[in-house]
Amino acid sequence: MAKHQTPLLDELEKGPWPSFVTALKQQAETKPECWDLLGQLELSYKDRITHWKHGGIVGVFGYGGGVVGRYSDRPDLFPGVEHFHTMRVNQPSGMYYSTQHLRAMMDLWEKYGSGVTNMHGSTGDMILLGCRTESLELMFHDMTHQLNQDLGGSGSNLRTPSCCLGESRCEWACYDTQEVCHTLTQKYQDELHRPAFPYKFKFKFSGCPNDCVAAIARCDFAVIGTWKDDIRIDQDAVKKYIACDPAYPADGGAHKGRDWGKFDIQKEVINLCPTHCMKMDGDKLVIDNSECNRCMHCINVMPRALRPGLEKGATISIGAKAPILEGAQFATLVVPFVKVSKDDDYETLTEYIEKIWDWWMEVGKNRERVGETMQRVGLPTFLKVMEIEPLPQHVKEPRSNPYIFWREEEVPGGWERDIVEFRKRHAA
Asked: Cβ of 204: how many Cβ atoms within 10 Å?
């Protein structure tokens, strides 16, 4: 395949940063289709429209998801990307790979595909970019039989569950994110590979409120670690932070090499508390835990002095999405605290999940995420479906509607019954 002139893309090679253009040119030395990939992208920059054709369902036998079809609308100019399908590969929990496994995966991808990868996609999968239709089954067969490696999710199905490193590396983790992620991935194989939902559905599991996988912003069912009791305080360590002891650097030494000046607990911790629940009482740090919203800022700044409480679990928030047109929305808090335990095979979580699915598959519109369905029907209706009593944590802001409407079964009698009868008469 001929090399294409790419003056616009060449501009992206200038400057001090690594460039994907340079990497693709290097890959094109052994995989000539990458020249056509660069050529088509150059044409897209010039025409200011994409030249990936819409439509065309492609996949592997027995799976409705896992492969994203990509076809060029200019195969006459760029035959190497006439078919350039994406394969989504289900990553291990926490993205722990052995070098042996990675090398074996890359050997297969060099054999059957373009060799271009995205490590990792925003959902979490290992993304393999560029495979012809006739090579998909061969790649899938060798990947599953030789490496025991499965495809992830794509389309209107459960997308590949994703989690943070959890208890394997992080001292703040409030539950075992990797175990939950692995267990539910195995449990919901059918939902993962055979699209049956109105639209995509994502799980993400963060071990603590730092939310390192951005669950609250990007997924339909966010399980974010938290604690129910008081933040643990080591007052001696607090004093050492205030005294700027070299063994107690603020932020855990994350800014080592730069002089940020003397540590000021009032300025850098107490004044930045979003709920103003902290103060110094003499040389003691005092926290009003009833006002704490678990933002983690104080713990991150003074990790040797403050730790999460011992009564650990998770918060469940539902309905995040980040569409381009309507704008992003965070997930809505639905369950403030739930125990996350392997003892019951995570039955509490799966009950919530399946209750959502049963309802959403019945009332959700085509290409409508759970969060959009919740917005359409209203949070009170959704809480009723979930059989959850409304809590103060569910209230985003005081309501502006001055009218209160009661269901008849909620009215005990007396003047309240008269109101109901009055409304019935006037409704007619």
From this structure: 29
Which fold is adopted by the domain 7-147?
A: Alpha-Beta Plaits (3.30.70)
Alpha-carbon distance 215 to 175, whole Å? 15
* Local structure of 53: helix, strand or coil: strand
pLDDT at 345: 86
CATH code for 232-307?
3.30.70.20
Strand, helix or coil for residue 134: helix
Joined together, the tokens standing for residue 322 give 């980040």
Question: Does the domain spanning 162-228+311-394 belong to CATH 3.30.413.10?
Answer: yes
CA distance 149 to 100: 13
High-pLDDT (> 70) share of the chain, % = 95
Domain boundaries, the chain: 7-147, 162-228+311-394, 232-307
pLDDT for 411: 64
| Cα 310 to Cα 328: distance, rounded to the nearest angstrom | 34
Q: How far apart (Å, rounded) are the C-alpha atoms in residues 46 and 6?
A: 10
| Vertex 314 angle, CA 200 and 220, to 5° | 10
Q: How far apart are CA 290 and CA 402, in angstroms?
A: 30
